[in-house]
Input
Amino acid sequence: MNSTSRFLLATCSLGSALIFSGCVSDGVRNPSGVPVTEMKADERGFVAGTGVESQDLVAVTDKMARSIIGIPEIAQASATPRIVIEPVVNNTRFPINKDIFLTRIRTQLNEKAMGKVRFVDREIMKTLERERDLKRSGQVTASADPHVVEFRGADYFLTGKLDGMTTRTSAGTSDYVLYSFRLVDARTSEIVWESSAEIKKQGLEDAAYR
Amino acid sequence: MRLRFSAGLLGLLFLLTACETIPDRPRIAYTGDPVIDGRAELQAAQPKDRVLWNYRIAASALRRNQPDEARVQLDTAIPLIGGILANSADARKARGLFSGEDSKTFIGEPYERVMAYYYRAILYWMEGQPDNARACYRTGQLIDSDAEANAYKSDYILLDYLDGFVSTKLAADGEDALARAQKNARGGALPPYDPNANLIVFAEYGQGPRKYGGGEFGEQLRFITTQSRSTHARLTLGSQVILLPTFDDLNYQATTRGGRVMDYILGRKAVFKSTTNTIGDVALTGAAIAASNARHYNGGTNRDAANAAMVLGAIGLISKITSAATTPKADTRAWDNLPQRLSFAAAQVAPGDYPAKVEFFDKDGTLLHARTKSFSVTVKPDGDTVIFVSELSR
Output
């Protein structure tokens, strides 16, 4: 075999190797799957968007809970204030589970406020009323007089609002979300506390999706 | 020498044929129920195609009054389509020379993604979360801002109209959104908002757009659109008649997006495929001419011509193989059970049970009898009662 033939053989082999290397696939990426990765809730995962994510929830609700504990209406109250949670209003472009923000603020406060504040559960009001009626009718036992009204009224309402602003250009998508929460005096309608947190995210998707 | 070439060529063809491996796909026993069959398809689908089946099942489930199933499917798809898909290996592969666009994870064209949010919004409203429904309308309109021409950016009438309507119902200002909707309606008068309306009706009719690959190599994403005979509908609820005119047309939305960034990439792939094919043709022709000159009339060998034939033959072969392996094909996977026309109405209706009938009409106002659907509606005493009627339900 002369040098030209050797060159040709090498060229053909290289070409073939290049082509076949592209063919080494069974059509499925990660055929063995990707093992479950446990992450902290305040950690950014590898699946991300510009919307409301768990790390935002944790950061925002931590900040709100810390702030509420410190206000005089709670910290220096002569009697333990009772709070009723009202649903958050979502004004952003992201559909979210709205209850999750207030649920986390409530659990944070219940864990850390050491009884300085109590929450009134209105979610199970119908169940509570049914139980009271059963007690009143004598169908079940009662440890106190069921005819005395003991359901607590609210001293404060805790609610919030999510507002958003979006910019989308060929350079990407940018989303700003303002999380604001407030505590309203149930008697006077005064806002006794309000705080906000803001998060901005931006990104650009792969050209294959543009 | 010819023997070596033939053997090499045969070997290449054999190996390339072996590369066409397709993963085993479970056999599906079809039942005729689009939700059950869709779930089976979803189970069998490759990960990159799963959102497509989530979409299809969701639409079928909604039409068969299975909102929980539709919710599950859309809640699976939306986190993916609503995120930022970057650093994705399959998207990178789709941009590469040797894979078609359909090797990327399917999320659909903007009109398909918009519809995923549109359907999810209906479900949110049914669940008593109109603010989350409004969030879906806003994201839908943002997705449509990808259109190339300004005139077609964010031009869904219904998305802005409903954004404003929900805001009005939530005691916020919906006038800006209504003004945008009115502008997109291009002179068509939109009904004024009635914040006390408690019956919310979503209707759809006609068959939505289909995709095909145009151009020499199927590298251009094109749409097949057919005009539905039904152009408007009418809901009769007891003695109350509610008109359901067309607000949006998905054929129009699909075909007015304009060029995509991916079209540019596919165009370059097509040029590469064409060029390498031409180089292959020229080189192989040159090889044939050189080979014909490799022997002298006197029986001797022209070594230079023989070598040239080999080199040109190798170049031609590699160019041809490269051209054949280059895949500029556009992604034609499509959410194929979408409607063509979207309609909406809101009315004040006293709580109670009603016999209901929805009738579809053509552009001349002729009733299309065969498409009439009868059902019953229970209007709740509190909150909004949301109903969804589709000409495509079966």
